[in-house]
Amino acid sequence: MAGAIANQQDKHMKLPTPWIRQGALGGAALCALILIAVFYSVVAGAVERAASRRSEAAEHMSSAPHGNVAVTRPVAHSLALARAGD
Q1: Which letter, b or e, does each residue of 41-54 get, where b requires 16 or more Cβ atoms within 10 Å of its Cβ?
Q2: Distance between CA 84 and CA 86 in Å, rounded?
Q3: Which residues, 6 or more positions from 61, have their beta carbon under 8 angstroms from its beta carbon?
Q4: Highest mean pLDDT pick, 43-47, 59-63, 71-75
Q5: CA-based Rg of the chain, rounded to a whole angstrom?
Q6: What is the CA 37 to chain-centroid distance, rounded?
Q7: 19 half-sphere exposure, CB direction, 13 A CA radius
């Protein structure tokens, strides 16, 4: 009798488990797709803004008189890259 009750409880407990597991996996997959779409949208927007700012800066530099452009020289030594023996 006890074995029959245990088998009945096992049947009731195992029946919804695949549905719950499939639902959880499906929900997780849907969330992952939504996060990928949001990430792609944010990155695409940032790339588009950077391209427009770069083109605006290039237009501004080409229209500026060349006498007002500051000339910079590269730094010979960087403290962040200096070795202890130098």
Answers
A1: eeeeeeeeeeeeee
A2: 6
A3: 69
A4: 43-47
A5: 32
A6: 10
A7: 5
Centroid of chain to Cα 23:
26
Q: Is the pTM of the predicted complex or chain greater than 0.70?
A: no
Look up residue 73 and give its two tokens: 């020289």
Chain mean position to CA 85: 41
Tokens of 1: 């009798």
Place of tokens 């237009």: 59
Tokens of 50: 């950077």
Q: Residue 55 corresponds to which amino acid?
A: S
Instruction: Write the secondary structure of 21-82 as one string of H (helix), E (strand) and C (coil).
Output: HHHHHHHHHHHHHHHHHHHHHHHHHHHHHHHHHHHHHHHHHHHCCHHHCCCCCCCCCCCCCC
